[in-house]
Amino acid sequence: MLTEQQVRKRLDVLEEKEYIIKRRGRAGTKITEKGLHYLYHLKTKQHLIHP
């Protein structure tokens, strides 16, 4: 299980890579188009490893 600080650090890294946009309150954290493309790439890569 991750601590709150570990989650915050991971979100900071994802934001630095422009995969997410962090917002406060109800706006929450949003995934960017770049983030969606990266997830698609990971899913495709994983599918090739584990068909």
Short key terms for the protein model shown above:
51 residues; mainly alpha; two-stranded antiparallel sheet; 59% helix
Structural notes for this entry:
By secondary structure, this protein is mainly alpha-helical. Helices cover 59% and strands 12% of the residues. It has helices at residues 4-16, 33-49, and strands at residues 20-22, 29-31. It has a two-stranded antiparallel ribbon with strand order 1-2. The longest helix has 17 residues, at 33-49. The protein is extended. The termini are far apart.
CA-to-CA gap between the ends?
Answer: 28 Å
Please bin the fraction of helical residues.
Answer: 55-70%
Order of helices and strands: HEEH
Extended strand count: 2
Question: Which SSEs are present, and which pair or pack?
Answer:
Blueprint (H helix, E strand, L loop, with lengths): L3 H13 L3 E3 L6 E3 L1 H17 L2
Antiparallel strand pairs: 1-2
